[in-house]
């Protein structure tokens, strides 16, 4: 997508967004079942499962040298590396 297309897309609203969505769909540039959005997209399907930080964990296992798991609390203490 070139700069002109991006500018058009991000400044389009209402009927213009629908026209742009139709154009992208006709050019096979919009995946089936998806809609063009100019807002931040929601990246999940269906209801959001309940979240309980007391029972949440993230586990890495299988083809790894050592199985590792983190609780929610321990995962929030990771330090960023540069």
Q: What tags apply to this protein structure?
A:
82 residues, alpha+beta, two-stranded antiparallel sheet, 3 helices
Describe this structure in words.
- This protein has 82 residues and is of the alpha+beta class.
- 30% of the residues lie in helices and 10% in strands.
- It is built from three helices and two strands.
- The chain has helices at residues 3-11, 15-26, 72-75, and strands at 57-60, 68-71.
- The chain is elongated, with a radius of gyration of 21 Å.
Structure classification: alpha+beta
The DSSP helix count reads: 3
Rg of Cα set: 21 Å
What is the helical fraction, as a range of percent? 25-40%
Series of H and E elements: HHEEH
Mean pLDDT score: 83
Q: How many strand segments?
A: 2
Low-pLDDT segments: none
In short:
With 82 residues, the chain is an alpha+beta fold.
Fold topology:
Layout: H1 3-11, H2 15-26, E1 57-60, E2 68-71, H3 72-75
Antiparallel strand pairs: 1-2
